[in-house]
Amino acid sequence: RTQSLIRFGQCGNQVGCRFWDLALREHAHVNKKGIYDEALSSFFQNAVLVDMEEGVLSEVLQGPLRQLFSTTQLISDVSGSGNNWAVGHHSYGSVYREQIVDQVRRAAEQCDCLQCFFIIHSMGGGTGSGLGTRVLKLLEDEFPEVCRLVTAVYPSAEDDVITSPYNSVLAMRELTEHADCVLPIENQSLVDIVSKIQHMAHTGKPGSVIKKDSTIISGQGGVAKTEKPFDAMNNIVANLLLNITSSARFEGSLNMDLNEIAMNLVPFPRLHYLVSSLTPLYTLADVNIPTRRLDQMFTDAFSKDHQLMRADPKHNLYLACALMLRGNVQLSDLRRNIERLRPTLSFVQWNTEGWKTGLCSVPPVGHTHSLLALANNTCVKPSFMELRERFVRLYRKKAHLHHYLGVDGMDVSGFSEALSSLTGLIDQYSQLDSTNTAPSQDPPRLNIAC
Amino acid sequence: MSVVTVQLGQCGNQIGPELFSTVYEDSTGAGRKTYQESSRERFFWETSDGVLVARSVLVDMEPKVISQAVAKASKSGKWRYGEKAHFCQKQGSGNNWANGYCVHGPRHKESVEDLVRREVERCDRLAGIFAMMSVAGGTGSGVGTFVTQCLRDMYPQAFILNHLTWPYGTGEVIVQNYNSVLTLSRLYQLSDALVVHENDTVHKICSRLMNIKHISIGDINKVIAHQLGSVLQPAYTGDSPSNYSRNPIGELLSSLVCHPEYKLLSLCNIPQMSHTSLAYSAYTWPGLLKHLRQMLIANARMEEGAFKDPALYVPWLPPDGTFSLWNSPVPFNGYEKSASLVSNSQSLLKPLDNMVRKAWNMFVSRAYMHQYTKFGISEDDFLDSFTTLEQIISSYSHL
Question: Which of A30, B46, B198, B206 could be B166's S-S partner, Cβ–Cβ 3.0 to 4.6 Å?
Fold first, then answer.
């Protein structure tokens, strides 16, 4: 049972590299005999790497992971997409369409059973965002029954790419319509998390020293020897992917696989944006973890400081929530914490006990246990509204529009439709929020003649 | 008389091996030859090399749990699963009943039927088929329902007993109530009886009675296996007072399921305690039975022979049809004395009602409907299921 990983653009490929590196490290930890065990090998065969300029991909080919990939798995061009979604989506989309589909098909045929496509890209650029979403549509057409899970990195407001709001909103429309599940990540959140950890590591209080090296942000022990900037942030995203796939790679008493995530967390087709949080983000020097610390982990998972997006699920409305627990943690710990936290959270009226839970026995490297929380929650609304604001500010002035409209296949309706798609999505979240204020009574039951 | 077990989905394939281990250990420690023979015959067959093989078919839509079950049994060196007795796929059912019932079930119908047929034909006499599954997920519930239907078609005269594990009320799977409703409504017509264990109840047994601090899924499964074992192991019954019963499932059904409207059975078993306390306890029969009756109806007045009290039972059953006593001279599973009560009563009414209420709430908002309709289960199918269950709830309420 395998997943195919397709990485687009600079972001996607860099995160992807961290993922492979950390995955290797995780499996090496578990499988002392060799680093290439069966579960992991299926991941590597099935990767397709796409970028429209050479820099990042050639690093992969020259880097320490180069033996894991063959050149056929990499598809690239030379000049890049110039941070232009239309170039990525329409121009390169048409040129490389067949090659990409072929490569994916070849990877798919290698799988005993293809369960899911994992797609990673940023939203603000041109290749990841444009070509990535074009391929998303292709995957839906060619492999309609295979789940499409997208990890999308959203730009921060201070992003240096001026047109990132255009690229993001144009891409979002595709994600809303063609992805099964999207995990939005915001660069700003990753920056905040990394700086907080580094701050803690440097100003540690006695008795609670943070181990600098075995943190979620460090790739130490992995194959790549030197760490580059952005590595720390990319490591976090890679860890997210490791946690989501842990049930597929290791055993556990309550398995939770990707199809189950897509099923349980998506009550309505378009509302499939899931906020993720990871704990712990650092390892404490003391190894004995009393129960109190375990419970703290659960509390942290719901705090806004641990979300990979600027969002506060605790103070908004949950449609559904999934918890994946890894390590030597028992069922009773899980149940106790759900009962403890449940009264502090708001769930939509028709899903008051909407928890999906999973237990995997193998923890991440350097930790005795970890928790991943995925929330379908209206807290995404403010981020989406902010994005729409930034889009509208540019669009109103028709700034930079000509770069896009000059591309074959792109016209103004693309922009207006993308905008109304985003507006519609925001409205759906607003409607749900409004149900939260009304006092809830159970709807009348079915009446049967006795 | 042999029982063929069908283990379905993760839950069925986790409890199944615990059940076989329990009955194996119990029959080994017994020291009574006839008990051991009868129990072995019921659950295992023997190869020419003297290896005990479980009379079981393992079905799942992903391989990990079955591999673990098979490996664990082999490692024990005491019994194992048949080499070709399992069927699995790779992709799982995604907690989607419709995927299990409409896609996986039909796709693999022949393979599963072949496996069951082989086990059934191996039995000299079939006591019945025991299907084990959860109702919350996708395979146990969806594929399990489909398989039960096939079994009913294949063996219209056989006794089919379904063991169902109901999930924690505070959620293990978000769509668990949908999956449960779809399962229960159909199984009710297909199965002869539904033996139910609720995770919430078993969890309380582990924490309060057995004092387990960190309860794992293994702990839950062991308790369930213990309770099932106490009922399914050989016993002297009303019909067979001096030999171990040759028709255990049939007798169970005739004493408990007197009317097709009422098929929900719950189990309780005492004592349940941690192993450390076991050595220090002594029980008397009147004490145990008093306790059991207490568990059956809270606040009742206790007397000797308490179970014969007509006030406990519905007026439309003849008095000797209401209560049957089975016993066995052999101690069960390490307890010097133990007693189990299998009852067809209102004890499951509240959990059932809660389940239906939550499923209905979700249905009214049409949440998750697209996940089911894409595999072929329509809103009308849901409505039919709700109707069936409201009927069952109504019947039990009016007792």
Answer: B198
Q: Which of B174, B203, B387 sits opposite A448 (nearest CB)?
A: B387
Which of B68, B219, B367 has the CB atom closest to A267's CB atom? B367
Its domain, for residue A410, covers: 382-433
CA distance linking residue A183 with residue A310, whole number of Å: 13
Total structural domains in chain B? 3
For residues A298 and A427, membership in a common domain is answered with no
> Measured between beta carbons, which residues in chain B are less than 8 angstroms from residue A359?
217
Give domain status of residue A176, yes or no: yes
Residue A346 host element (H or E): strand A346-347
Name A3's Cβ contacts closer than 8 Å, sequence gap at least 6: A43, A46, A114, A115, A116, A117, A118, A245, A248, A258
| Record: contact B170-A333, CB cut-off 8 A | no
Shared domain for B74 and B154, answered yes or no, is: yes
Q: What is the pLDDT of residues B363-373, one digit of tens each?
A: 999 999 999 99
Contact B370 A260 (CB under 8 A): no
Q: What is the pLDDT of residues B196-221, one digit of tens each?
A: 999 999 998 888 878 888 888 999 99
Q: CB–CB of B214 and A359 under 8 A?
A: no
From B214, B219, B394, residue closest to A333, measured CB to CB: B214
> Which of chain A's residues have a Cβ under 8 Å away from the Cβ of B216?
253, 330-332
Distance CA B295, CA B252 (A): 20
Q: Judge whether A124 and A155 are in contact, CB under 8 Å.
A: yes
Distance CA A73, CA B112 (A): 39
- Specify whether A332 is located in the same domain as A418: no
Please name the residue of chain B whose CA is at the shortest distance from the CA of residue A330.
B216
Q: How far is A268 from chain B (nearest CA, A)?
A: 6
Choose among B89, B92, B220: nearest Cβ to A257.
B92
Residue B160's closest CA among B181, B183, B190? B190
Query: Between A and B, how many residue pairs show a Cβ–Cβ distance under 8 A?
Result: 137
Q: How far B152 CA lies from chain A's nearest CA (Å)?
A: 28
B217 and A448 in contact by Cβ < 8 A?
A: no
Q: In angstroms, rounded to a whole number, what is the distance separating the alpha carbons of residues A295 and A369? A: 12
Tell me the ipTM for this assembly.
0.82
pTM beyond 0.80: yes
Choosing from B244, B266, B288, the residue where a domain stops is B266
Q: A363 burial class (0-12, 13-18, 19+ CB within 10 angstroms)? A: buried
Q: How many CB atoms lie within 10 A of CB A192?
A: 15
pLDDT range class, residue A34, cuts 50, 70, 90: very low
